């Protein structure tokens, strides 16, 4: 009798994992492992192909500008014509763009590949965010976004170790080329999976045409800006708070592996294995954090995550091997708390028919911020000091924390 009760409880807890949500989670297992595999040594790979730290920042700038470029029409078309066609077709494009990463004889190929990959991603990201939100009931949003992170963390945990083994056996360049070959194959698999199994959540009689992605830009731009008149003011403050945090992160994201291996002098293969602490922490905390987000106010985990990020970066920049491991564990904890709570609160605040446009606008702005932060981080790292971008990232915690604490109010009734 007891066993039956436990099984029934588990079934009730996870009954929402079905349909589109389940398909997206399964496809994420493929693409998250794929993306994380070459990410382990990405910065070192680009430097080896002839770039400098500043050029690495320029590549980051270009990629994030490309990611921002099509967010407005992507969000507009997702709300007007539906989510599935954008998600499926653009996943194919992302996979093919990684060919340039795999064959690159110089950093110039990485630059072109990063721009193409960014454009394809940019078109379908608002549709992807909207489809997730459409597929989760209000009382399970914290758990839903946490499970996305749990699954992605579980799939990415072995990626740094695989990257380390490829590095040890094939060297940096050949190991990265093999990694990108795996990326291409897994993205194409995910694209076919999404094409055949996703179900549309927006019912429309209109047939989408690819040329409308460009032609719709003026209308999409206007509607994406006007969307802020249709959502609560707290959604705007939440966006601003997250944007400040994103800027801080962007100044150091590309340079953590370089700082760890060149300044702290952690062995490159060792770095690949300790990088697994971030997804392992996510796996451990995803379920309890998801339940916490659904039980308490969404703001509490968001505020806690910001403080954790600041502490983690301070430990990292002043670290040795043991402190770097501790900082990565803290980063994993902060990441799962912020993403689960932010995703749930954004969905609570945004009506269903505006989610594509809200996602498009926030993604656009965040990628512009990421672009500028990457460029600034590269300049600070090369010309001021390796520590300076980390100090700037830590400083951004304060305004982000205060914006959320004072101005963001949770809704009395959560949007469906």
CATH class: Mainly Alpha
Give the number of DSSP strands. 0
Shape: globular
Helix share, percent: over 70%
Might you state the CATH topology name?
Growth Hormone, Chain: A
Q: Could you tell me how far the N terminus lies from the C terminus, measured between alpha carbons in angstroms?
A: 36 Å
In the CATH hierarchy, what is the superfamily? MFS general substrate transporter like domains
Structural class: mainly alpha
- List low-pLDDT spans: none
Structural domain count: 1
Helix segment tally: 22
CATH architecture: Up-down Bundle
- Strand percent estimate: under 5%
For the sheet with most strands, the description reads: none
Tell me the radius of gyration.
Answer: 21 Å
Describe what this molecule looks like in 3D.
By secondary structure, this protein is mainly α. It has one domain (2-196, 222-407): MFS general substrate transporter like domains (Growth Hormone, Chain: A), CATH 1.20.1250.20. 80% of the residues lie in helices and 0% in strands. The chain has 22 helices and no strands. The protein has helices at residues 2-13, 19-39, 42-48, 53-69, 71-81, 84-97, 99-103, 107-134, 141-156, 158-170, 172-197, 212-215, 217-226, 233-250, 256-262, 268-274, 277-295, 299-317, 321-349, 355-384, 388-395, 397-407. Helix 14 packs parallel to helix 20, helix 14 (233-250) runs antiparallel to helix 21 and helix 18 (299-317) runs antiparallel to helix 21 (388-395). The two termini are 36 Å apart. The model has no long low-confidence stretch (mean pLDDT 81).
